[in-house]
Design goal:
Layout: H1 2-10, H2 27-47, H3 52-65, H4 70-138
Helix pairs in contact: 2-4, 3-4
GO cellular component, one term: mediator complex
Region (Disordered): 1-51
Biased composition (Polar residues): 10-26
Amino acid sequence: MEPNTGGGNSTMIPSVPSHSNASTPTNQEQQEHQQQQNQNQNHQSLASHFHLSRLVENLADAIDNGTRDQHSDALINELNNHFEKCQQLLNSIGASLDTKDMTVEGQYQKQEESGQLLNQRRDLIANYRSTVEDLVKTEP
């Protein structure tokens, strides 16, 4: 009969949601990870289009020749286009850095919440243990 009594007491522990899935990514985390991968791929594809040194050298050669023609105008336009793409890349990288900061902040908050829940659970277990010990001491 004592095992049943012990079993009855164990059901008195309030259920506190465990965070055993803390290592399992949530749907939101998976979406953020996918978004980050897409941004990284976008950064790499944009970066591969920037051959600025070649353009600048060609433009320098055109300037050295001293003639402004369709070729030098085309080089200037191409260089402007590349600089615009560079600006897009920098803006995209800046936005992803802000996202990473928020993600790290969110992870820190989750860690704090998990720590609080763990401490609550420890307190409940200690309280339960002392209650059981008191009950065992009072039994004849």
